[in-house]
Amino acid sequence: MDFLKQLYDWIDVRFGVREVVDEKRSGHLLPPNINAWYSLGSVLLVIFCLQIVTGLLLMLYYVPDIDKAFGSVAFIMDEIPLGRLIRLFHAVGSSMMLLVILLHMFSILFMGSYKAPRELHWLSGFFLLLLAMGISLTGYLLPWNQLSFWATTVATDCVSSIPFVGSDLVELLRGGKQVGFHTLGRFYTLHVGVLPATIAALIGTHLFLIRRTGVSTPPFGLEDTTNQWQGDKFVCKDHPDGIPFFPNFVLQDLISISLYLACLMMFVFFFPNMFIPSTSYMPANPLVTPSHIKPEWYFLANYQTLKLFPSEIVGLTVQACAMTFLALLPFIDRGTEKHPLKRPVFTMTAIGCILLWIGLTIWGLYS
Length: 367
Ligand code: HEM
What we know:
By secondary structure, the chain is mostly helical. The chain has a domain at 29-275: Cytochrome Bc1 Complex, Chain C. Helix content is 66%, strand content 3%. It is built from 14 helices and four strands. It has helices at residues 2-15, 17-27, 40-59, 69-78, 83-110, 119-141, 146-159, 166-174, 181-213, 245-270, 297-308, 312-327, 329-332, 344-366; strands at 29-30, 228-230, 233-235, 243-244. It has a two-stranded antiparallel ribbon with strand order 1-4. Strand 2 and strand 3 (233-235) form a beta hairpin. It is globular. The termini are far apart. The structure holds protoporphyrin IX containing FE. Residues 38, 40-42, 44-45, 48, 101, 104-105, 108, 113-114, 118, 121-122, 125-126, 128-129, 203, 206, 210, 215-216 line the site of protoporphyrin IX containing FE. Protoporphyrin IX containing FE is lined by residues 38, 40-42, 44-45, 48, 101, 104-105, 108, 113-114, 118, 121-122, 125-126, 128-129, 203, 206, 210, 215-216.
């Protein structure tokens, strides 16, 4: 213990750690009624870092070439020590990241934390959701197996129904008429370079905005007297009776992160085939179309919606309108009430939309 104290003193003299820790303890007080849902943002930060680390390790052996990609992934899985584990952490982690993003969004929806002055927190988060879907889509093609090849063919095909520019856009995305050599190169560049850098920059913006306004006060059991509008000015102060971020809320963050890691390991160790089905063990063959091509679970609702409409362009327009509405929600819903039970129309509509999305996903899976 003495040694640890000496080490801490040594670091403190050089870095002034005590000052920073004390400032965090007393200077950054969170709402006293803050709840566990507020730790999902930290869980997402950890997931993003884990995806970067496992992704970099996979890059040591992965070869982005249509003749070698499948073999290089098989080599990682079968020959490299811990290779199977790292690949599964990365593949399962991408699905889990989308799941946690959705939970983070739902909690913000029901607690009304997207409302003014947090419109840009929501908008930057919305773009993070789109980018997370993009990074998962581009990563899905990289193992170059039957499932990933045909799922990418179907997904990129949808773009062709956009009037006037559709076919040019598909060609730009694929680097040719069909999914092939150039598609793999483009998706690889997006997946390992462009998208992670853009996501990191956007996370930085998201955190900057949160630091500026402080986190919202949950609408349960306490009136927010510290963070308030005074005329058209928003006054953001620390909660005088609040709880310190460090160590109190950090403990909550650590509990949520541990729970997340336990779930991730449960899927990786006991149900890996849920994420890597049997068609993933066959190399891509552009001449043989598998009987059931399904996109990943997070695209199933979009995929099923497209099938419901007589023409793809109608299906795409409906989805584009729904997504635009979701992105602009804080600008449309200007009410100040945040408690879910005190705004029943919103709450019922939100629950209805979530159930519809779940229903379409299950329908897409079994259709
Ligand atoms: C990689 C994805 C994301 C990361 C790393 C992230 C991170 C965070 C963190 C650390 C917080 C502060 C603590 C908390 O309330 O949880 C937060 C808050 C927030 N996030 Fe995210 N987030 C992500 C995605 C999203 C998405 C998809 C949305 C919505 C479309 C969103 C909207 C918000 C809003 C409105 C807040 C403010 C909540 C409040 O003040 O109570 N975020 N986020």
